[in-house]
Amino acid sequence: MLGSFFNSKGKKKTSKAIVFIKSGTGKITINGLGIYIYFKKTRPIEIINEALKELDYKNLDIKINVKGGGVISQADSIKLAIGKCITILDPLKKFYIKKLGLLSYDKRIVERKKPGKVKARKKKQYSKR
Asked: Where does the pLDDT of residue 2 fall: very low under 50, low under 70, confident under 90, or very high at 90 and above?
């Protein structure tokens, strides 16, 4: 099924993920650690499993490098990268994967702070007298 390996990238906010998929035993590692060791909470694992249930990964090794951002942001960037890998492995599933929302990139980022303001939009309280 697989020649050597497939890879794809995903990002959300400031987190970036690169997913490498090759034939193997079904091992998933994130930055050299297991998925349950790297993510200690259940919500990011649920987000990643949402993408993994569409991929039959029992005979695939998945290596993920992720950096930047928070825990949920990293999980979303991994989900996007896995969705892209699924479309590389099986192009016929692209429409189905897109309908599930695994290929949608969230373009929202933090707005920059403007000069003369406390935050991006927050102003100091106006005093009339």
From this structure: low
With a CB cutoff of 8 Å and minimum separation 6, the contacts of 92 are none
6-100: which CATH topology? Ribosomal Protein S5; domain 2 (3.30.230)
How many C-beta atoms surround the C-beta of residue 124 within 10 A? 8
Compute the distance between CA of residue 19 and CA of residue 25 in angstroms, rounded to an integer. Answer: 16
Question: Alpha helix (H) ranges present in the chain?
Answer: 35-38, 42-52, 71-89, 94-100
Determine the distance from the C-alpha atom of residue 19 to the mean position of all C-alpha atoms in its chain, rounded to a whole number.
9
Over residues 75-126, the pLDDT tens digits come to 999 999 999 998 988 889 889 888 988 898 888 999 999 999 999 999 999 9
Q: What single-letter amino acid sits at 41? A: K
CA angle 122, 123, 129 (to 5 degrees): 150
Q: Identify the residue whose tokens are 């497939």.
A: 6
| Count of C-beta atoms within a 10 Å radius of residue 81 | 27
